[in-house]
Amino acid sequence: MSVKIRFFARFRELLGTDVLATPAPGMTLSGLVKDVAGENKEGYDAIFDEQGAFREFVILMRNTKRVDTADAEKILVTDGDEVAVFPPVAGG
Amino acid sequence: MITERERERYKRQMMLFGDEGQEKLKKAHIFIAGAGGLGSPVSIYLGVAGVGHITIVDMDVVDQSNLNRQILHFDRDVGKKKTASAEEKLREINPDIVVTARDEKIDETNADQMIGTADGIVDAMDNFTTRYLLNDVALRKKIPLFHGAIRGFYGQATTILPGKSPCLACIFPKAPPKEVFPVVGVTPGCIGMIQATEVLKYLLGRGNLLTGRLFIWDGLESRSEEICVEANSCCAACGTGKPRGRELRLN
User: Fold this and answer.
1) ipTM for the predicted complex
2) B228, closest residue in chain A (CA to CA)
3) Which of A8, A79, B5, B160 could connect to A86 by a Cys-Cys bridge, CB 3.0–4.6 Å?
């Protein structure tokens, strides 16, 4: 199974723009992002809190549809998925 | 009526939208929340385009560290109220428009009255607490909110049309953490131009607005992308659709 994870903005600096991954069957959306983000501690910490939950402001998309990060632990990744992880910014 | 002097000033853009379009801009009142990194380019460009009445609100004093991006304010303005500096520059930039500058903090007690009968709100704030408040007012008054935000080389923008698009709280249910954000002036310049373009399009009734779309700018990659955003049926602010709680109670 092959999927693509797209990071945006600051996440992109830490983890790369487009990351291709080959997760095992049964992998959840949350598990996939954790695996890929785990390559860089700073990148992982920017996305996940100390309990391993998505930080509450993170926007997660799967195949252009918004996914509630609270549901990401239950959703299974399927072949060809494109997952986007985006950190909104607040400055002006 | 467009005066001869205005006709000459706006000649090149009236080639795009004629007397009718210029009249629409002249009759419009736009409320700009913030005279900082985003508020500076937005107010300057709406001012030169001839948006007839601009209200700009800020509570801060110009600091030396603002000058790398807040292009309404000059070195000589350090220590001056941002509103006084903004009013002076905008009047010089275009004496044919009305500028109201308000040196106040926008909060829930004054936001409705301050925004009054404005035709739209530009979100040029630096914090989500006030942004959510502006979103609430936009929803109540059924006027658009032109959102923009930046950090470093990155920015985002979207246009909220109450009842027709997701609201700010649908798109960002949780605010990013507060911080002293790094920024280089070109980033609010880019995002401010997206916001100002949206305002002009809305007032002119031209083109397609950034409704239901979140525009994302990556200055380091020189890449812009957009993600589709949808109304959240459980949104606490706009209450679109059926809240989850009500469904449960009905069951």
Assistant:
1) 0.88
2) A64
3) A8
A18-21 and A65-67 strand pairing: unpaired
Q: What is the CATH code for B4-250? A: 3.40.50.720
* A60 contact B CB<8A: no
In B85-124, the residues whose Cβ lies within 8 Å of chain A are 123-124
Residue B176 to residue A90, Cβ atoms within 8 A? yes
For residue B183, the chain A residues in CB contact (below 8 A) are 91
Top CATH class, A3-86: alpha beta
Contact between residue B183 and residue B150 where contact means Cβ atoms under 8 Å apart: yes
Radius of gyration of chain A (CA): 12
List, for residues B172-215, the tens digit of each pLDDT value. Answer: 999 998 889 999 999 999 999 999 999 999 999 999 999 999 99
Domain boundaries, chain B: 4-250
How far apart CA B88 and CA B173 sit, in angstroms, is 37
Length of chain B: 251
Is A51 near chain B, with CB under 8 Å?
Answer: no
User: Does residue B126 belong to the interface with chain A, where contact is any CB pair within 8 Å?
Assistant: yes
Task: Indicate the pTM of the whole model.
Answer: 0.93
The answer to whether A32 touches A21, Cβ cutoff 8 Å, is yes
Cα separation, B94 vs B177, in Å, equals 38
Q: How many residues does chain A have?
A: 92
